[in-house]
């Protein structure tokens, strides 16, 4: 074959998988969802299930009172609200107790020693009395009927867990465009999750709005970083279904800096990589779910390596076989993509608006986060306990 031929094959392989992940997989999902899509549950189908909302909080003094008030105002309101104070060093515990005193069905559990979110979730679940457990972050504010849309999905007895839609509020200043990238990312994710849910293959959930039947709940293993991914995949692997409720919406303020957002994504990615080594999350007996998991989540981890391999191999092809004009074209397109990412970085730094450049910048930054997460794992860095980004 020769070096040029090998490099050409590698270029096609790397670019093909990137194209499949970013474009073809969502398109295929969208088409399948239109053909196979199930009927949306109606408000009249809401089952009468006792509901416990569990809010895990560490140093959330600035938002915990608002979060409790938001939870009490939901329609329907949770039958029980449990706030787990996970070793906060600020006034979270005091403020939470003051806010909870107005409602008898709100209890605050103090966990003096910080153990991380997964330990706090286990702590709260052990005290819960609900038939459905709804896990939420303190910084997430639910729309008034979010719980109604979550519970409607449980009318199907095969459904073990349901996730809502995470939205990011616009940035506070014109110079901070992080929220625009975050919002674009979550709209893209929502489309994929909505399509996966329609064909019965939901493999992604958000921990800020994740409901699970108490009978399907299993305590999170020690050291779990991605609690939402573990709950989703282990539930699927046991033969239960997971749904996405797009009308169950929660809102969060955008991160105040790109550095904070990248640190968050590094932590999530590191947790996802480590999760692959746990046999209980692999849905080997469910081919459609396994295909969605490989396409949506596993392939994403390989993207930065495919990106690097694709452009390096492409350069080698053009260098050794300049007459192969198709590869010259793919190289130009890749360079344009990297150029747009660089322009997006500059736009982010200067507060300028350029949606296309920002999109390429976000993709490149996400892939950089994966590389950094791999390095973090290699050097033994722990993300079990982490500081929340400023909002």
UniProtKB/TrEMBL annotation:
It comes from the Bacteria. SUPFAM superfamilies: Nucleotide-diphospho-sugar transferases. Keywords: Glycosyltransferase, Membrane, Transferase, Transmembrane, Transmembrane helix. The chain crosses the membrane at residues 6-32, 301-321, 327-347. PANTHER family: POLY-BETA-1,6-N-ACETYL-D-GLUCOSAMINE SYNTHASE. Belongs to the glycosyltransferase 2 family. This is Glycosyltransferase 2-like domain-containing protein. It comes from Gemmobacter aquaticus. The lineage of its organism: Bacteria, Pseudomonadati, Pseudomonadota, Alphaproteobacteria, Rhodobacterales.
């Amino acid at each position: 074959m020769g070096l040029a031929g090998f490099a050409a094959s590698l270029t096609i392989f790397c670019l093909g998988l990137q194209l499949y992940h970013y474009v073809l997989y969502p398109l295929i999902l969208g088409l399948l969802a239109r053909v196979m899509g199930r009927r949306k549950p109606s408000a009249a189908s809401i089952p009468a299930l006792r509901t416990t909302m569990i809010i895990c909080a560490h140093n959330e003094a600035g938002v915990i009172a608002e979060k409790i008030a938001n939870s009490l105002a939901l329609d329907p309101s949770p039958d029980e609200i449990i706030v787990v104070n996970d070793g906060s060093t600020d006034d979270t515990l005091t403020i939470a107790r003051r806010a909870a005193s107005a409602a008898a069905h709100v209890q605050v559990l103090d966990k003096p020693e910080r153990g991380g979110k997964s330990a706090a979730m286990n702590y709260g679940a052990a005290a819960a009395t609900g038939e459905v457990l709804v896990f939420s972050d303190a910084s997430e504010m639910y729309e008034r009927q979010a719980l109604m849309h979550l519970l409607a999905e449980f009318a199907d007895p095969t459904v073990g867990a349901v996730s809502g839609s995470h939205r990011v509020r616009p940035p506070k200043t014109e110079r901070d465009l992080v929220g625009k990238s975050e919002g674009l990312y979550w709209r893209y994710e929502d489309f994929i999750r909505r399509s996966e849910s329609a064909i019965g293959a939901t493999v992604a959930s958000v921990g800020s709005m994740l409901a699970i039947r108490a009978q399907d709940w299993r305590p999170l293993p020690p050291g779990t970083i991605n609690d939402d991914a573990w709950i989703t995949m282990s539930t699927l692997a046991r033969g239960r279904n997971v749904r996405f409720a797009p009308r169950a919406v929660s809102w969060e303020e955008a991160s105040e800096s790109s550095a904070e957002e990248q640190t968050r994504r590094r932590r999530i990615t590191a947790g996802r990589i480590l999760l692959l080594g746990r046999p209980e999350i692999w849905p080997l007996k469910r081919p459609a779910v396994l295909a969605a998991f490989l396409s949506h989540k596993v392939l994403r981890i390989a993207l930065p390596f495919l990106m690097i391999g694709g452009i390096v191999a492409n350069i080698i092809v053009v260098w050794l076989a300049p007459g192969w004009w198709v590869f010259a074209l793919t190289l130009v397109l890749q360079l344009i993509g990297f150029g747009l990412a660089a322009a997006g970085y500059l736009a982010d730094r200067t507060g300028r608006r350029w949606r296309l450049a920002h999109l390429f910048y976000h993709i490149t930054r996400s892939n950089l986060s994966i590389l950094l997460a791999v390095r973090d794992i290699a050097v033994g860095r722990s993300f079990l306990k982490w500081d929340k980004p400023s909002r």
